[in-house]
Amino acid sequence: MKTKVVKNSSENLDWLNQQPIDYRIAMVQQHLSICQLLINQIVESSIEEFVGEKGSHTKPFDGQYSRYGYNRSSVRIGEKKIQVQGQRIKNNITGQTFKLDIYGQLNENTAGEERVQLGMLSGLSTRDYGKVMDITSEAFGLSKSSMSKRFIEQTTRTLEEFQSRKYHVHNFVAILIDGISFGDQMMIICVGITDKGVKIPFDFVQSATENHRPVKDMLLSIKARGLKITDGILCVIDGSKGIRKAITESFGTKAIVQRCTWHKRENVLGYLSEKDQEWFKGEYSDALKTRNYHQAKSLLQQLVKNLKVKNIAAANSLAEGMEELLTLHKLTLVAKDPSVLQLSKSLSSTNCIENVNSAIRRKCGRITRWVNSDQRHRWLAGALLEIETGLNKIQHWKKLPILKKAITLHIKKPTIALKSTS
Q: How many domains does the chain have?
């Protein structure tokens, strides 16, 4: 025999406790119904402060107020809106009716806004998002348009937060700059690395290409927000001339550039046959693994000579900016501590920022149509802030303070610093 269950349109928790155990368990599983009951009880308590309990002859305010009908109302719970009783109250002296402020207070609760953004950035489309929410007859307002609107509101606040962050409290040793494609536009991202090895996304700028002007504006903005470069900063880049020029114009002699060894290798390989590629990889790797700056430089110079026999264009590619391939070798020499070169795995290439870019693609890659610049900025800021919390410190980060001292010494007296350690 089925147990009769009463509809829970306006009852409170006393009603719930009177229900059979199997029904109470079902109610727990449908927690929005519990929320509805709790809200109705909160509202009822507030109403009773004006009009007293139902059936009671004792009335507050000498009976000045009384119940006066219902109208449909709703309260947002996380990602849901649920219907609640909208009790109006009448002032028996003035004849005016009003609804309590409690409804507004309940709707000020924005718990779950972050979950909307997290859900979207984790790969849920606006259509799919509703499918993973609890489904009850009390829920409504989960249309694609309403979810999109809430996501836009949340990510707009996130973008403002991201663009207003200050960096005075951090001591940065290095920055990495690289671009990622968002449709037909390039989003150039800058990530900082502190002396504690922590990776912090600084900023990004939209550009059709890696043009120096947008990158320069981004770097100057980062400086204005607290990036300290007085003692020098290591800049790791992929070899883009535009980014290189922007660094020079923004940081001047305070910047020391490390060219990405991986990008340089790939550029050279593009000129070589498969047979010569394997040979080059081995020679190139051996040269960079050499701990001594002068020996590594000598090996690369010899490799350029050998390449000229096979492919002059490949040789010219390797020779271009070759000195910046050995920046960490040079700083290790200045530091008089060979162990500093252990940082090369993280700081001799843009791999650190490539890992960030990979995470961005996982969160934003399903977007097949970028509508406008605002959309790109909101999604990217939201993704970067979400990614930031899961970024690991770079390997051998305890060597960073030593590297920082070497950077400072080198920018003050670059020639003397190198000669004194030759």
A: 2
397 near 352, Cβ under 8 Å?
Answer: no
Q: Is 5 inside a domain boundary?
A: no
| 138, 191: one domain | no
Q: Which spans in 52-177 are helix H? A: 102-107, 113-121, 126-129, 144-163
Between helix 144-163 and helix 373-388 the angle, nearest 10°, is: 70
Q: pTM of the prediction?
A: 0.68
Tokens of 45: 């308590």
Burial tier of 416 (Cβ tally within 10 Å: 0-12, 13-18, 19+): exposed
Structure tokens at 266: 């790939």
Q: Judge whether 403 and 173 are in contact, CB under 8 Å.
A: yes
Q: For 158-185, write each residue's pLDDT tens digit.
A: 899 999 999 999 999 999 999 888 877 8
Confirm whether 3 is domain-assigned: no
Q: How far apart are CA 66 and CA 90, in angstroms?
A: 5
Buried b (16+ CB within 10 A) or exposed e, 178-193: bbbebeeebbbbbbbb
The answer to whether the CB of 329 falls within 8 A of the CB of 296 is yes
Q: Is 140 in the same domain as 179?
A: no
* Residues 146, 216 within the same domain: no
Q: What is the model's pLDDT at position 372?
A: 87
Q: Which amino acid is at 281?
A: K
Asked whether 186 and 209 are in contact (CB, 8 A), the reply is: yes
| Nearest-angstrom CA–CA distance, 285 and 262 | 10
- Is residue 362 within a helix (H) or strand (E), and if so which, with residue range? helix 351-364
Task: Tell me the mean pLDDT per 10 residues along the chain, length 422.
Answer: 45 62 58 64 79 79 82 67 75 84 67 56 51 42 60 83 91 94 86 95 87 92 94 93 94 95 95 94 95 95 96 96 95 93 92 87 77 88 87 93 95 61 44
Q: Per the domain annotation, does 6 fall within a domain?
A: no
Alpha helix stretches (DSSP H) within 273-320: 274-289, 293-310, 312-319
Instruction: Please tell me whether residues 298 and 415 are part of one structural domain.
Output: yes
Q: What is the pLDDT at residue 30?
A: 56
Specify whether 209 is located in the same domain as 123. no
Residue 64 tokens, joined: 């000045």
Please check whether residues 286 and 249 belong to one and the same domain: yes
User: 239 and 92 in one domain?
Assistant: no
Which of 103, 137, 159 is the C-terminal boundary of a domain? 159
